[in-house]
Amino acid sequence: MKRLTALSSSVAVLALSATIASAQDTITFTSFGGAFQDAQREALLNPTAEAMGITILEDTLTGIAEVRAQVLAGAVTWDIVDLGLADCAAAESEGILEPLDYSIISTEGFDPASYSDTWAGIIYFSTVLGYDTGHFGDNPPRTWADFWDVENFPGARSLRNNPVGTLEIALLADGVPIDEIYPLDLDRAFAKMEEIRDHIDVWWTSGAQSAQLIADGEVDMISIWNGRLDAVIDDGVAANYTYNQGIASLDCLAIPRGAPNKEVAMQALAMMLAPEQQANMPQYINYGPTTSLAFDQGIITDEQMRISPSAPENLALQVITDADYWAENRAAVQELWDAFMTR
Amino acid sequence: MTLALDNARELRADERRERFSILGLSFPALILVTLLVFLPVGWLFWLSVIDGGELSLIHYRRLADATHFRIFYVTFEISILVTVLALLLGYPLAYLMSQLPPRWAGICLIFVLIPFWTSLLVRTYAWLVLLQRRGVINQTLQDLGLIDAPLRLVHNYTGTVIGMLHIMLPFMILPLYAALRTVDPNYMRAASNLGAGPVRAFWTVFFPLSLPGVFAGSLLVFILSLGFYVTPALLGGGRVMMVSMKIQQNAGLYFDWGAASALGVVLLVVTLFIFWVLSRFMRVERVFGGG
Amino acid sequence: MSAVSAKSEPIRFEGVSKRFGTFTALDDVSLEIGSGEFLTLLGPSGSGKTTLLMVLAGFTRATSGRVLVGNEDMTRVPPHKRDFGMVFQNYALFPHMDVFGNVAYPLKLRGVAKAEIGTRVRRALDLVQLSHLADRGVDQLSGGQKQRIALARAIVFEPRVLLMDEPLSALDKNLREQMQIEIRNLHETLGITTVYVTHDQREALTMSDRVVVIDAGRVVQVDTPRAIYERPADSFVADFIGESTLLPVERNGRGFSFAGMPLRLGEAAANGDFLVVRPEKLGFHDPGTEEEVNLFDGSLQQVVYQGETLLAQIRLANGLPVTLRLSTRREMMARLPEIGAPITLALHRDDTVIVPEHRK
Fold first, then answer.
1. Residue B12 neighbours by CB distance under 10 Å
2. pTM, whole model, 2 decimals?
């Protein structure tokens, strides 16, 4: 009841500040599908559609390539897209996104790194150190240094086959404090990677694969996205994780350049980013809101807050991924990474 | 006399018309083949020599580093290994099928074809289930006490080769079987009659006569293996990087069509070169069922 | 002394049977083939003649019975240890070897020294008059050349016997007749025991010392070509070899009669149910020969001109048809009456052959 009131009041504010959308308006929202998009539908899309009296269609994508293809072909059918942080930054520098109208989008409670001219973070997720509790019992690895310590923490290991996030992990393992990670010391990071190379059983490439690895007991410790691991733990798998030295990152929402219903999409975007709606998200999936005000809406429970990747006390333990660094250096670092992987 | 000449002209016209109608019938297919085969390859080549709107060999120069050399090396090494193993496993099976009565051979053929009815992805995941650390094979071997620690069968080179081998086997067996079946049994009888025991007869007569099938199957498997993506990506555990994966990375992730195209062109050229070398040793049209 | 010497050994089949499931391909065949003999297995397709050859070559295992060559029991000897030469229906020349390679193949298998292989291949090719083709590829040869190379390959290693499975069936008529004579001559030269399979009765008569007529897996008659033709053992042989009309006869005491008329019999053993009337054995009735011939009255129905001979269709008085073959010599043609006119035919008593009905 309380939640409903909060929602309707915010809707009223937004509705006043924006041109009233007509019932015939339709926008297309595109995200990564699966449990994540199901949660977005319940938490964000349905309330927004209802409040604005519009229809929100859905589609799915796998990354920046499809957005780029639509924009460059001049045949944009998506109005709002959900992308990973690095893709958002890359898309902004490629100029394939519409500038956001911050006169109607509120960034109160946002970390300055969590929004930009053309995109705004919608969820926090974290790459965490997950482990098999059955294998480790009372003495699990708690830091990335433990992960690198093959003597005292024997077991099968897996890291992501991607420099984004993984190089940060290597530097953390080598003792770099969380606030001194960027810009990355690449020599140091790859030297540290070299140490662990022969002890990595699997270099995972997709989120589904990482979940399968820990669920099937294929590995005993793994760098994994917290939402994926939560789902596995909910299924009864004996696993756990810590936010200590996690790599927090964002998914952002953006409007592709030349989106067919730009105006309506901008209003919808503003509504989805509002704390009242962001607070809905943890009810369906354990991803954290990007505005700290969401925790004050009385919707997120204490228990949900304890495990939320963006709860202030959890966020304080983590490295926050630097989108600008990766936008600038990703291709060059990838070359080094490929050389490392094929060596 | 005039009458005969008139008639000759009409007959010539008929002949021309007939030829035109044949051309007309094949014209749509010709257009389609041109559009679907030559244009993309030409476009690929064009993209590979363009950088920032200017002609440039930068994409090719970038390939000349140790990383790309290793990627090509691994691609060819795996393709050759898979081809050789597929031949070693496929030949005896194809031979058996070629010697069976048609009804039994037909049943065997169905079993060979069954994998084609299952998605590549499903089959690859199935191997994951079988081969992984707590998979069926390791579990069974451990239960039987044959091994103490699980074997590393997947997420590496071994797993990739096993998975690819399984998928490639039908592509080896089918052309082999087709070739072996056409070897006249009288050749083997003649060899036997002339004094060759079964083993001698096989190696001196049957095997040489089956070589077109061996080449056809090997070429098919080798070329398909060169472009393989799904299986090494899923079973390689990140350790096995083949050219196709690098192409996908360049095109999908970095929007670097130039680099992706250059890789594609190099792979195409190397493949054509291999084809050309092989064709020096044998008549290619015979391999693919001509003479 | 011949250029390529050959052994010559007798062959004996003892009660050989072969069954495929419920089908009996060979039914208790016993047969002796003399040393150096040219024997032909003749029969319609499916008669078992090829199966018998395959049993002899060792490619088909008999269900029961024995096969002996010389005094050696070959029944369980695998084909590659039998040392028989064979010419296959489609020649089975190895396409991946040239002519020399094909002919040298059996010698290489026998570990013959390289120099000697050269000499012996050369001699075998000389024998078939194709030495100049030694370096040719097999697919560059004509049908007749392939045939001779196959022959050279089959004899180069001096086999104990020579087997031929319809070797001429793929050749055209002229070449076939030429090859028949060549093969026959080669046999004379080598003196090798030869078993030849054909469904062409003329080929069998032309080439063989003796012919074995086979039907439904059983040996019906074994005899010289002339005896097979002139004195068929039963209605099947009479019908299968050459042209003939079989006319039903009645037993008449110790003799036979046709349409109520007693038949004069000569030297041919007469026993059975049918009179064998071959078109060329019939002739016009010459007065004064009545003691030596049997006469048949009828009327001329039709005349078919065939070049060197013509065929005249005649309906006998009792309605049965017979055929008369006449040389197209002027004086013979002149004796033919008009169509529809009566005609009297004569059959010499020595050519009056009566055969029993074929036992199925």
1. 10
2. 0.79
Q: For residue B268, give both structure tokens.
A: 């195409």
Domain hosting residue B18, numbered range: 1-48
Range of the domain at A33: 10-124+250-315
A142 CB contacts (<8 Å, ≥6 apart)? A129, A242, A244
The token pair at C252 is: 């008449």
**Domain membership flag for residue B53:** no
Q: How far apart, in whole angstroms, are the C-alpha atoms of residue C330 and residue C155?
A: 49
| CB crowding B169-186: b at 16 or more within 10 Å, else e | bbbbbbbbbbbbbebeeb
ipTM over 0.85 threshold: no
Hey, which residues does C353 pair with through a beta bridge?
A: C276
Residue C335 has which token pair? 């004796």
Same domain, B145 and B113: yes
pLDDT tens, position by position, B129-139: 899 888 889 88
CA–CA distance, C249 with B36 (Å, rounded to integer): 81
Q: Is B21 on the interface with C (CB under 8 A)?
A: no
Interchain CB distance below 8 Å, A205 and B254: no
- And the tokens for C273? 């149910």
Domain for residue A179, yes or no? yes
- pLDDT above 70: percentage of residues in chain A: 93
Reading the block at residue C43, the tokens are 């029969």
Within a domain: residue B84? yes
Distance CA B235, CA B229 (A): 10
pLDDT for res C50: 92
> Contact B251/A204, CB-based, under 8 Å?
no
> Which of C79, C90, C110 shows the shortest C-beta gap to B193?
C79
d(C-alpha A254, C-alpha A323), whole Å: 15
Last residue of a domain, one of A244, A266, A291: A244
